[in-house]
Write a sequence for this structure.
């Protein structure tokens, strides 16, 4: 299993004249295959679900029988990462196959973003655009969070300078999604609302039901397509289901899922050694209060994923459907006395990634390749057999060969970013390698370097940068190569 660094990837790509996306892919299907013979795709990605919150990994004490079964039927990528672990930047990378400074989504999309420019460009060619042009029905259900709200706003501004988050996405900005049941960003998990395919901006559909359950219902109706109105039954489909939970507010989860954790307390649930339970306030206190609800939401997501999987089986679509389960980023939930996202630590940076395609992707396997968010688009297109349609300028890599169990090149590092949109030359940049996590935090007063040896210190408790100067020097070179290749202003500062 050959691993190559970023500089070697760039050299190989230039030599092949095909860009980074052309590397590593091996097609199951020929380029000339008709659309009708291509596999369907169901892509489920809840918001803020960390990698550790899957029971089969034996890390968090969480209840996830359907995810455990899905992993047993497919491939689990145990080192998948969210390179910029925030909602909108991840989604921008997922859809475009490009890093944030290339696709423009350098912060969350809301009215008060400091850069005033963070939204998905209409001209960008997205994964869904390619699938649509290849003959797919494309459907999107749930949280979009890739448009910037504009006046007159569809909701009142949030207090504390948090602005407006929700927005209607007009058809011309939906990037090939012909079926639309979505919203931009709204955290009312028990009272969600959506704009449907043909609705106007003032025609929201309001629901009084947990959003995950309702979105699974809509997904099942789309798959069943009993009236033939949701999609063309003669074409393959690509359905994206973007749940907002387990994203906060953590209390907005049905009691039935909380009850499944019985009388377990935070001491039974916050079991990671990097959570200091002696801390009585701040983020750790929040984690103590909400961890049961966070895990309960994960269990509810697992249950409704099971319903979607059962529907595929009942409709005799299981064998010809690629199923992906992942998330946009994790949640610290008290580790290192932190909450939520946007951290280099594994609880934030690491995401679940399970892929099932019966008879094509080997069942019950695990792969520790570093798999980045921009790699998802070209890898799925490569897996389907559409390498020739990977858009020019894609910065991710087609790893479909790895997904198929082939011995092909693997990346030597994955990029981490924490961008200050008003001053992008500051913030944090770093790398995850198979062994190390390396971060440089830059402020106006100078830089701090952090290095964790994840083999010796898997919970990232000790900064060994001062004791590992040669490693820091080599990783600094690697980081600079990443930043140059992705057009990051940090590299020029």
């Amino acid at each position: 299993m050959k691993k190559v660094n970023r500089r070697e990837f760039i050299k190989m790509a230039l030599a092949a004249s095909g860009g980074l996306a052309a590397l590593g892919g091996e097609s199951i299907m020929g380029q000339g295959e008709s659309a009708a013979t291509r596999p369907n795709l169901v892509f489920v990605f809840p918001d803020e679900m960390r990698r550790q919150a899957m029971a089969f990994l034996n890390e968090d004490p969480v209840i996830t029988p359907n995810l455990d079964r899905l992993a047993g039927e497919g491939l689990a990528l145990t080192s998948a990462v969210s390179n910029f672990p925030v909602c909108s930047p991840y989604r921008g990378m997922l859809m475009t196959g490009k890093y944030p400074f290339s696709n423009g989504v350098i912060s969350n999309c809301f009215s008060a973003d400091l850069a005033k420019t963070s939204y998905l460009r209409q001209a960008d060619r997205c994964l869904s655009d390619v699938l649509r042009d290849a003959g797919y029905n494309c459907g999107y259900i749930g949280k979009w969070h890739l448009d910037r709200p504009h006046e007159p706003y569809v909701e009142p501004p949030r207090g504390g300078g948090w602005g407006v988050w929700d927005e209607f996405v007009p058809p011309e900005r939906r990037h090939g999604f012909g079926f639309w049941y979505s919203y931009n960003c709204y955290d009312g998990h028990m009272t969600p609302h959506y704009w449907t395919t043909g609705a106007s901006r003032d025609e929201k559909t309001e629901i009084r039901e947990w959003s995950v359950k309702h979105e699974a219902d809509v997904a099942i109706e789309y798959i069943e397509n009993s009236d033939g109105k949701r999609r063309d039954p003669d074409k393959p489909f690509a359905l994206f289901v973007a749940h907002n939970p387990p994203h906060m507010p953590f209390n907005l989860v049905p009691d039935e899922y909380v009850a499944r954790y019985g009388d377990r307390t935070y001491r039974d649930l916050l079991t990671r050694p990097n959570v200091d339970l002696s801390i009585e306030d701040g983020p750790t206190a929040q984690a103590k209060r909400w961890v049961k609800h966070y895990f309960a939401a994960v269990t509810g997501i697992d249950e409704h994923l099971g319903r979607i999987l059962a529907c595929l089986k009942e409709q005799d679509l299981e064998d010809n459907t690629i199923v992906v389960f992942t998330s946009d980023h994790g949640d610290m939930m008290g580790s290192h006395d932190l909450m939520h996202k946007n951290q280099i630590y594994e609880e934030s940076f690491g995401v679940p990634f399970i892929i099932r395609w019966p008879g094509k992707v080997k069942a019950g396997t695990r792969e520790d390749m570093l798999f980045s968010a921009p790699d998802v688009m070209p890898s799925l297109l490569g897996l389907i057999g559409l390498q020739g349609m990977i858009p020019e300028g894609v910065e991710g890599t087609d790893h479909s060969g790895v997904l198929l169990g082939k011995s092909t090149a693997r990346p030597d590092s994955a990029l981490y970013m924490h961008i200050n949109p008003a001053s992008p030359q500051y913030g944090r940049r770093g790398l995850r390698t198979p062994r190390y996590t390396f971060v440089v935090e830059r402020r106006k007063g100078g830089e701090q370097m952090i290095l964790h040896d994840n083999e010796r210190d898997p919970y990232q408790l000790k900064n060994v940068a001062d004791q590992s100067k040669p490693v820091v020097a080599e990783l600094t070179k690697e980081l600079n190569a990443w930043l140059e290749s992705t057009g990051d202003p940090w590299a020029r500062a």
